[in-house]
Automatic annotation (TrEMBL):
Mg(2+) binds at S293, D355, D356. Its EC number is 2.4.2.14. The active site is at C11 (nucleophile). Pfam families: GATase_6, Pribosyltran. This is Amidophosphoribosyltransferase. It comes from Salinicoccus sediminis. PANTHER family: AMIDOPHOSPHORIBOSYLTRANSFERASE. It catalyses: 5-phospho-beta-D-ribosylamine + L-glutamate + diphosphate = 5-phospho-alpha-D-ribose 1-diphosphate + L-glutamine + H2O. Binds 1 [4Fe-4S] cluster per subunit. It is an enzyme of class 2 (transferase). InterPro entries: GATase_2_dom, Ntn_hydrolases_N, PRTase-like, PRTase_dom, PurF, PurF_N. Its cofactor is [4Fe-4S] cluster; Mg(2+).
Amino acid sequence: MYDIRGLNEECGIFGVWNHERASELTYIGLHSLQHRGQEGAGIVCANGEYLFGARGMGLLTEALSKDQLVSLREFPHAIGHVRYATTGGSELSNVQPFLFKSHRGDLGLAHNGNLVNAVRLREALEDDGAIFQTSSDSEVLAHLLRKNKSSDRKTRMKSALRQLKGAFAFVVLDEDSLTIALDDHGVRPLMLGKIDDSYCVASETCAFTATGAEYIRDIEPGELITLSDDGIDFDRYTDSEKPNMCSMEYIYFARADSEFRHTSTYTIRKSLGKQLAREMDVDADIVIGVPDSSLAAAKGFSEEAGIKQEQGLLKNRYVGRTFISAGQEARERAVRMKLSPVRDVVEGKRIIVIDDSIVRGTTSRFIVKALRKAGAKEVHMGVSSPPLKNPCFYGIDVSTHAEIIASQKSTEEIREEIDADSLTYLSVDAMHDVYHSYGSRGQCDACFTGNYPIEIIDQVLPQEKDLKTKGV
Ligand SMILES: O=P(O)(O)OC[C@H]1O[C@H](OP(=O)(O)OP(=O)(O)O)[C@H](O)[C@@H]1O
Ligand SMILES: NC(=O)CC[C@H](N)C(=O)O
Ligand code: SF4
Ligand SMILES: [Mg+2]
């Protein structure tokens, strides 16, 4: 089964300490994070004596049965995960949270992100006697923790985290604590919340809204937070802090109602659309956003340009997941099934279409053609992000160079290929201006600029890497 999205997500994590409905809250939290990963899901719980978990392939509702949920009910502590694979194939053994048993105690672990030195670390650990159970990058943390001989949990955790390179938001559960860690670049979002008297953690604040939790604050790069019966402990695993939050979270990945530093993604996307309007000198009769993720940018564009926004494209909401074979022809068929123009809205009009990104160009190529066929006089494309040119090594599947149209072609060549009357991308500077205006302290923009903020030590694309076969 393939998801027909042009960009593929990452993962979502949730955790809660000491709540009588811990597993239920985790299930609800994960449900609202489903857009971050649809390949597998799981929950691991703890009760002060041991850990117990359930996981499965597919969407959350498919992955966990009612009986499994009932078996998790009595546990007061829980972590959960929804997965979109970056390193390691899409198979049950790689579905998280992982659960390890040892005479020193049980350990549960869930990760959002991608480690760029997992191959090296794994080889060294294996040479030292470790036997891995999965082909995922995330498992190395468990072995690093187990290998450390210190009797102090936090010392073990800090030392293990310092050896990891890349993007990671981790929740780690043992019998008597839940540890939350974010890498020193803070590439992936991680939020702290509170429900009743219990602390919780989630990839996005939409999980707090769904569970009824209060959103406290964004977790900072390099932070290490421990929840236990002693309360909450705020610390850092490193002094280094180089904020480089993923720009694509704002542009495309996060849910529109999720907040970053107490501003919704919707508002940020609207601002990106406004900035684009300032940089795009084209007159038109109507503005159309590509549903759903680009509607906010189209709204901002429309307000700034003073051109009314219309719903000129309709999305068939049941085509989110379809049985299709891979390949360009199948993708084109899928986009045709997914989007269609509203004829009497577009007929005879000069149109500006706003999309949040162009990856392979399949969506824009189809839209321009379909709008012209429905009678549009002119079709101008505006993209509320800079040209996407490079693959991501930090937890998002944006394909390889060969598949990304802007890494092969100039803007004029892309315009020609998608047959638009004009094509304008948002500039990198304007994008950063928007983020700074909402309190961002630094953003990763490597897929646009090629400036990778974290050295790619393994030098292999995550989606080509399966650590079972070394992948290199
Ligand atoms: O150039 P392409 O390869 O066609 O990819 C670009 C498209 O992919 C994304 O949408 P997607 O279809 O993933 O889903 P959405 O409905 O969530 O916007 C993005 O919003 C663009 O519309
Ligand atoms: N997308 C993610 O965050 C995936 C986490 C981890 N790298 C995996 O592949 O399972
Ligand atoms: S390379 Fe792009 S998708 Fe990857 S973390 Fe950086 S901004 Fe996000
Ligand atoms: Mg889209």
